[in-house]
Amino acid sequence: MSEDRFHFVEVATTLETGVITGTYAVGGQTFHETWTVGEGARLDHPAIESAIRWLFLLGGVSSYKTSAPLLLDTGSIALTNDEAEFLRAFYLYGLGEFAYRNGLNLGNLEVVGPRITERPEVQLPDLPNGPLIPFGGGIDSIVTVEAVKRLGATGRLFICSRPGDLFAAIEAPAVCSGLEIIRATRQIDPLLYRSTELGFLNGHVPITGVLSALAVVAALAHGHDAVLMSNEHSASDPNLIDDAGMAINHQWSKSEDFETAFAQILRQNFGGGLNFSSFLRTRSELWVGREFAKATNYHSSFRSCNKAFRQDPEGRLLEWCGVCDKCCFIDLVLSPYLSREELSTIFHGREPLEQESLLPIFETLIGRSAWAKPFECVGDPLECRAAATLAARREDRLTNGVLAKLVGEDPMSAAECAALLEPLPRRSRGQ
Prior knowledge:
By secondary structure, this protein is α/β, with parallel strands linked by helices.
């Protein structure tokens, strides 16, 4: 095999165990990634085989980034031109942050392999159940879950982890939801944990895209007619524009660009019988914060702190760290709707807004820096400015030094803040 290209070697499903194995080759190395989609899954249906093919194609990003060649060779998998362009976009834009941080230019990335003129539509299995909801334990997915419950839909949660490794920050709010759980697993090749030692390139991958494809497999295998994501409006905003004019978005696989393109792929494969969309697409993080504030039964269990999701279980925190970008953002977006006392309780006495040393992080969140926003899953500067403006007006925040400096003499107007609580127009940020 040529070492100057990434090879999609094969994908195999062991029906007896329910294990799906993707095999890839690049740079003289062979990599294997495995997935499962829960007990009782039926994986021998033609539609599920089609969904597994897309899981295999999107799931290759972790292996691809070890050397990031400019050719993606789909091997025996034939694609339409539209499918090949979607695959190229997923690797190019989904790995935008990875390429930016590693000083790479992937603009000439090309997909090679057999072509077909049209994708034959595959008949779906019986799908009697309501939406499958990918659940990460954060405020976005919690708001989606509670909305689905109010609508009376028969939804279930979709949770993915490494085999035998559950995240407490996901499990605790999942229990609060009261919904059944479809448990999936994803295991990357052990070689990838030795990236530094073996000289591999490293960096962020569009993991939400991979989990979206895995959720589609799980939905079909367990009879769900929809995969309902929780990606909000500002996920389409880039973090920065690079010197070549390319938008770099940490959340690209949560963006409307990805959602629209992947939904179109699924329609071409399944004729529209499976819905893939985000419940929050037209909503701001400010609106999400307001809705989450009402979900008081989750307040003592959720924990959207970066350090709660470290891959090494020994290094995970069981409480909020109170100092990372994500802690600061969550505190800020909830501060208009929860009291200082309530947020102090949530953060176990380490509320970020009460730490003036964290002012630089908050200034980055509201757009007062060279970056549009941190390379994190956080809201856009306008949403953060609105949250700061509304919080600074609260009786219990009038003496808060961080909010005073963030708002200064240029608060947003009441009308500007109110507009962010209304449905926002769908948008595609372009590529």
